[in-house]
Each structure stands twice: as C-alpha cells, then as structure tokens.
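Input chain follows. Return structure tokens only.
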Amino acid sequence: MEDLLFQYTETQKHQTITKLRKKRLTENQVRLLESNFSSNNKLEPDRKCQLAAELGVPPRQVSIWYQNKRARDKAQSLEIDHGNLQLRLESVLADNARLKGQVAMLKDELNRIQTVFVTPFNNNINVVDQKHDLEGWLINDSLVGGGAPFVAPPGMDMVSDLVRR
C-alpha cells in the first residue's frame, strides 16, 4: 500500500514539475514567432536555438509552436478551399438545372416540329396541303424570327425543299 502511495506522489510531483517548466508564451514572444514564421514556416535547427535564446524558452517549445502553427494554417487553408469548392458546386448545380430546363424545352420544340413534318406523311395527306400548312406555320410561328413575317429570297422555295426531304 505504501508502495502504491509512493508511486502516486512521485507521479504527482512529476506532473507539477512539468507544469512549472511549461509556460505560456507572452504576446511579445508570440509576435516574434509570428514574424519569423511569416518569413519562413520551416525552422532550421540554428534558427530554433537562436529564437529559443531570444524568447527565453526551451528549443522544444519553439519547434512545437512552429508545428502547431503549420497545422492551424493548413486547417484554415482547407476551410477556405472547402468554402470555395462549395460555391463552385452550387454554381455548377445551378447551371446544370438551367441546362436541363433548356434541354426539356428544346425536346418539346423538337416534338412539335416532328409532329408537323412527320405526322402528315404518316397519315397520307396530300403534299400540296402539307406545303400550304407548313408555309403558314413557318411564316407566322416561332421558327422564323419569333413570329415576324418571313420572306424567302427570290428563287428560293424553303418549304418545297423541306417537304422533299
């Protein structure tokens, strides 16, 4: 029992000594470390000893501070990158939705056009009637300039060319 009590008190003493040796850095010490870190985020052994002497702390504490600072910078950089990627993803998803809408609209328009061109041939309607209906649709509907009248150039019969195909 005494042996166990002795081990406990020795451990407690060791922890107390460790806490006494490890002190927080002052604002001036942190500023000096920050300014050195901004010029070079890797710490050479000579520079580590020089900084430790200037700051009055063990070299190990300087190296640990540098290691922690690099880890904090990396985490911050990852957060910024994640935010930027999230914004790009939202933009791409919005473009995707817009393009899907355009595809659906174009498919509907294609179906309308196919109905005008294909259905009359399947129902054995007279080609003259088809030409007349198609001319009216091309001239008055959305295929030509958003409903504006269409005048074919001299010598060009667009409807006949389309019906022959």
